[in-house]
Design goal:
single chain, 119 residues, mainly alpha, 2 helices, 0% strand
């Protein structure tokens, strides 16, 4: 539900309630006007408080969004650094594994040759 729809419904509901109160009130006109004035002041105060709360929420969301962008940027940078360090640390092991894999392939080839010669 959008904010405009909610606000429109809130205002229309308030006006309908005010009209129903005026037409069904058992008090005199002077008293009814006083009640209406008091209710309208209370309504305006509540509306002002609601507006201030919504502005505060909007500002909080903006702040959280900015902080989130900063944190995500830092996180991504940290991940990049960690990956680069991991690549550097794994490099010697990679070379050793290649050497050992070549030795295994050489041994397998020699065994195949030996088996062919025995047949």
């Amino acid at each position: 539900m959008s904010g405009k729809t909610f606000l429109s419904g809130f205002i229309i509901g308030g006006l309908a309630a005010a009209a129903a109160t005026i037409f069904t009130t058992p008090v005199s006109g002077k008293e009814a006007r006083k009640v209406c004035v008091d209710n309208s002041k209370a309504f305006l105060k509540e509306f002002k408080d609601l507006k201030e709360d919504l502005i505060e929420i909007k500002d909080s969301i903006a702040t959280a969004s900015k902080e989130g962008k900063s944190v995500i940027g830092t996180f991504v940078d940290d991940i990049k650094v960690a990956l680069e360090q991991w690549k550097i640390e794994i490099k010697p092991h990679q070379e050793q594994l290649k050497i050992e894999l070549n030795e295994i392939e050489k041994t397998v080839s020699e065994l195949e040759n030996d088996l062919k010669q025995q047949q």
